[in-house]
Amino acid sequence: MEAIQIGPGFAAEMRGVTLADVSNDDAAYAEVRAAFEKHSVLVFRDQPLTDQQQIDFSRHFGELEGYNTPGHIRKKDDSRLGSGIADFANLDKAGNIKSDQDRDWFFKLGDRLWHSDSSFRPVPARYSLLSGRVIPSWGADTEFADMRAAYDALDDRTKAEVEDLVCEHSLTFSREAIGFTELTPEERAAFRPVRQRLVRTHPVTGRKSLFLSSHAGTIVGWTIPEARMFLRDLTEFATRERFVYSHAWRVGDLVIWDNRTTMHRARRFDRNEVRDVRRTTLGGDVITIEQVA
């Protein structure tokens, strides 16, 4: 097994491993884990996993996110998949491509904004694992940005400015940014803002990173216009080409990333083609506003 750097140094492709077997091979898993401590994004090609195999492999990294706080508008009865795995396909429960007027389709368009998974939850997600089952013939890349390198590249004045800032994150902020404003009172209550530090410290490496996301809509103690302009400026800086790896999907790819040190976004594709990708998410272990830098 070897890790081959791809793009900027925070991404690597793992070769010589079959993930369906790793769940029963502690030595192989230890190698994967070591590579993940060094890199923030790992790519595994040619991994035709079942949902259960993806769940089993994911559990090596910790507990699956429990989704005790609402994070979607789709009702459970409308899901195609079982528990433990999230459906990011453009398909309805019957397996048909969703209408371009479907509320769920509109909601998912927000994933094309730069974000960190579950930053809108009190305890944000640690890792995400996305499996490519059916890939469109055009587009649908996923881009990742290295928030550690972006933080390191800030000038000293900006580093001092961001050090102790706390932001409020909500799905309401990210969805309103794309014009999805027709939320029910129940949804707005479910998506009430949570507070997150703008600068995080990685518990293993000790490196600092920016904790940015389209879900961040305010900075505590700032006016909303100033806060949103500052967050937009930081996001534009942190997603410059030198900080970004763009993943071109193939069927059977599995990509793992660390939400504590990266942002990501989905890219456009032909909505008349099927895109079936499925995600498992590892729950976080720290409330960021209680984290001591």
List keywords for this structure.
alpha+beta; 23% strand; 3-stranded antiparallel sheet; globular; 293 residues; 7-stranded mixed sheet
**β content, as a range?**
15-25%
CA(first)-CA(last) distance: 35 Å
Report the strand count.
Answer: 15
Number of helices: 9
What is the H/E string? EEHHEHEHEEHHEHHEEEEHEEEE
Helix- and strand-based class?
Answer: alpha+beta
Shape: globular
Note the main sheet. Answer: 7 strands, mixed
**Radius of gyration from the CA trace?**
18 Å
Share of residues in helices? 10-25%
- The pLDDT mean sits at 93
Instruction: Give me the oligomer status.
Output: single chain
Descriptive report:
By secondary structure, this protein is an alpha+beta fold. Helix content is 25%, strand content 23%. It contains 9 helices and 15 strands. The protein has helices at residues 19-22, 26-38, 51-58, 103-108, 147-153, 156-162, 171-177, 185-190, 224-238, and strands at 2-5, 11-15, 41-44, 86-87, 127-134, 142-146, 166-169, 194-197, 199-201, 208-210, 216-219, 244-247, 254-258, 262-266, 276-282. Strands 1-2-3-13-5-15-4 form a 7-stranded mixed beta sheet, covered by helices on one side. The chain has a 3-stranded antiparallel beta sheet with strand order 12-6-14. Strand 9 (199-201) and strand 10 form a beta hairpin. The protein is globular. The relative contact order is 0.23.
